[in-house]
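<context>
A single protein, sequence plus fold
<entry> Chain with its tokenised backbone below
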Amino acid sequence: MKRHAAHLPTPDGVDALIGVNFWSRTGGPLMWRDYDGDVVAQELEQLRAHGITHTRSFLYWPDFHPEPDRLSEEMLAHLADFLQRHVDAGMWTIPTFLVGHMSAQNWDPVWRDGRDVFSDVWFVGRQAWYIREVVSRFAGSPAIDGWLLTNEVPIYADWRSRGIDTIDAEAVTAWAQLLIDAVRAGGGTQPVSVGEGAWGVEITGNDNGFRVRELEPLIDFFGPHVYRMEDDPVRQHLGAAFICELLDLGGKPVVMEEFGVTSDYVDDENAAHYYRQVLHSTLLAGATAWIPWNNVDYDAFSDREPYNHHPFEMHFGLITDQGVPKAQLLEVRDFAAMLGELDFAGLGRPDTRVGLLVSSFLESPYAFTAREDGPTVFQVARQAYVAARTADLPVGVVRELDGLPDDLDLIIVPSTKALLAPTWAELERRASAGATVYASYFNGVHANQRGSWWPKLDDLFGVRKRLRYGLIEPVVDDTVTLEFQVDFGDIPSGAILTFAVGGTVDGRSHLPVEPVDAEVVATDRAGRPALLRRRVGAGSMILSTYPVEYFASAVPRVNPEPTWELYAALAVEAGASPEVRVSDPAVMTGVMEHRDGRRFVWFLSQTDQATTCTPVTDGVLSELGGGTVTGPVDLPPFGVVVYALDADDR
């Protein structure tokens, strides 16, 4: 299976697009009114010295477009100077046009008069005119490396709902087409995208009108904005990575357009840990550009909106208001330096034979389904991704709507209430052809047609289900135990795995079965079948009667939890063990390859303690600067180490 890692074009001599969202310390969102080119030059110089070559800049809409048919020449002159300062610094910028939302504040052009952002023909025409006019003046600037239509426009259009179930998708797609056409009509040939945050239904299960499948043919890159609030450190660290995996659509580059932390929520040391984890985990998940939020703090504007009512928004900077670099800026610097050392322009992700199947019920508005179904698919699939990465599996995320790749040895179907009927038949065909197909039973989180929508479950898995109509078999304990009755992968007979149980009353349930032509691999503490295997042709169908991924997804601070051991064993069964692995679940590995044949392996610690791990690989590890690695790998708290990986020719 191919895994996406498309690169956004960068200027000659630039290995990777490492940027920062930029407002000058002279004014924050109002910087253009108090514009000081010399201060901007100083700010750019400091960023450039730390490996940052790009900014994402913002044309504060009310200032640049003060009347429906007039642009501010003063603001445009400031923009011209701003672009020249980038040229002088050897830097580039991606301007953002419709900045009506920023940092917990919405600002309208005074002449909007309540018109709908997407469907009012006159208002959309004014937006297109504004964009075309700005682009026509500056498209030829060597400082411009891309364009963004907006900043988080679903919040601007409807801040109360964030656009969920209130914005019409057809209107949004037509609006985006018209505004992108305006960029091209103005002579803009650089890459363009929307700037909406990639928060749509295909990613989150919540439909805010910005459907990335419909926008994908129009745009040149995806730009997720990720500020997740989690209850588990590993889910927090891998949250952005999983979103990058979900954006494997159309072969478009994934730009981490926004991520970051406010210093009001976290100390410098933990901010650095978070940056390190997000930068490296998203790289391994297919992101190829990074633009954190944001360049500097804004203490001087505590009496201005939005900072007077959302004061934590003042302190997302990589640099303090006094010009002192924060720890997270040093992480960006080190990340940029590492990518330069590896010649990032030639790096990609190796193919994989392990697929995580994501149900189409995440994104498709099937009739008579419940509102919770889509977000639950996201919740469960993300936890399964965490478990797979904890097991060091080079997992690829497979969307059901896009079909199963032909070259998967292991297919993971985690805690899935529903797939399309033809998909189940296809999974059995894949097993017959030699794949290992694993699925865990799941009733869903609510009582609407409660039960797994698995046609001919008994035949698929070689069991007789012992369910009573309309009722569930509840799991009342806080843990579920699997005792293995046979050797399974690298799990020996007699081994016991204990899983934490969380979730709703309906979700905390299991599937009672009797084996017919399936082998009982593991039983629960009551001796009931919990993991079964039906041999099918050259492969197997493996059933978990407990939705262990769903259970874990609903438990705080649960990771690492033993689903990773189950997945590691499944990989052994499928002949798809990772190229490099470690036995410590607090350390994850990942491999990337260069087009010249060189390979590199990452070790990412998920613990706040210094740790040592011993790699298991048939290859030879060496320091990037030379020297074979013969012993354990030492990692500082939440640390990352990268080694070269060579074949063992002995």
User: Anything to note?
Assistant: Residues 121-138 form the longest helix (18 residues).
